[in-house]
Amino acid sequence: MKNILSQLKKISLPTITFLTLISLTPLLLIITPKSEISASERRRLAALPSLTTKTVQTKTFMDNTETYLLDHFPHREPLRRLKALYAYNILHQNENNNIYITQNSAIKLEYPLNENSVLNTAKKLTALKSQYFPDTKAYYSIIPDKNYFTAAQNEYPSIDYPKMASLLRENISENDYQYIDIFDTLTLDDYYKTDTHWRQEAILPTAKKIAEALDQAEYLPADKSAYETHTIPDFYGVYYGQAALPMNPDTITFFTDDAISAATAWSLETDTTTQVYDLSKLTDEKSVDKYDIFLSGAQALQIIKSPKAATDRRLIIFRDSYAGSLAPLLLDAYSEITLIDLRYISSALIGDYVDFENADILFLYNTILINNSAMLK
């Protein structure tokens, strides 16, 4: 007995602390309340998997259990923060989870240029034109990700943006599409600090340049003074959660005027009609992103009706999430705007829902999507 006590006395305090934590962790995992959503990461957390003969045989039970345990580990958020601070401040790493911070903005690394993906984008545009609007000249534009403004001067790798643009130009006929270059209308300050998206209040020059190419600029308000301004505080974007570093939240600002306030948006997926700004997303437990107020977030196909537009023209936008905040700024000029997101609907199906005749047609994609275009259906 004395030998045992003697041995116990030799155990160091760190060892005792470690063994105590190891012993308590399973208990904490059981009794700690479980969340369905990680607000900081803007995603749903894994659910406890079902134990069945099939899940055991296919080994999915163990894999899904491991994911569940990682997602619900006690004090997971503080530990993620501690890991990120250690990586930045102690190990002096330049990024964490492929996110780096510069000019108080969180930016995700995106490189190298995937030329096959760019060519696939060009092929997709060409095929859609041939199938749905062969006799209509269409337009396309590229939205730069935040790396475009920061990577070179901070010696981070990035996409070769000029080459991406040239590959598209070389593989998309000028007779079929006109390129609208909006790079010069944007700066890093036009994007949220904690998120990938641009800020609606900063992209009026971008909307104006697109409208000029479409010969609709005269119908847009002259400047932001023509709009009523609304704000939503405490917006933590997707990069905030991924970086796991302390950052001040952004504020979402959105504009309304008579045309925007009168407009309604119908969704194919839900067969429901909402306002252009879906403020119910702020209290919807299923929504993990305040940016979803812009046209209800990700949707396969939407049709916006604008009864107070200055013209009866129609616009069709093949879009990603950036168009959610841009489209409302065009409602003074277009009585109808159709938004198609090919990440969520097959190209073969859109002809069942969309009339392309006598409509302006715009492809508006950000560089990250073009560099990962395999997700386009």
**Runs with pLDDT <50, length 5+?**
none
Range of helix content: 25-40%
Average pLDDT value?
84
Number of strands: 14
Shape: globular
Largest sheet: 8 strands, mixed
Class based on secondary structure composition and strand pairing: alpha/beta
Number of domains: 2
Share in β-strands = 15-25%
Distance between the termini: 72 Å
Provide a count of the helices.
Answer: 13
Taking all Cα atoms into account, the compactness measure Rg is 25 Å
From N to C, what is the helix and strand string? HHEEHHHEEHEHHEHEHEHEEEEHEEH
Order the strands across the largest sheet as they lie in space: 6-5-14-12-13-11-9-10
Output the keywords:
377 residues, alpha/beta, 2 domains, eight-stranded mixed sheet, two-stranded antiparallel ribbon, 14 strands, globular
List the helices and strands and how they pair.
Elements: H1 2-10, H2 13-31, E1 37-38, E2 43-44, H3 53-57, H4 60-71, H5 76-90, E3 99-102, E4 105-108, H6 115-132, E5 138-143, H7 147-150, H8 161-171, E6 177-180, H9 204-213, E7 228-235, H10 238-243, E8 250-256, H11 258-262, E9 264-267, E10 272-275, E11 301-305, E12 314-319, H12 323-326, E13 336-340, E14 360-366, H13 367-370
Parallel strand pairs: 5-6, 5-14, 12-13, 12-14
Antiparallel strand pairs: 1-2, 3-4, 7-8, 9-10, 9-11, 11-13
Helix pairs in contact: 6-8
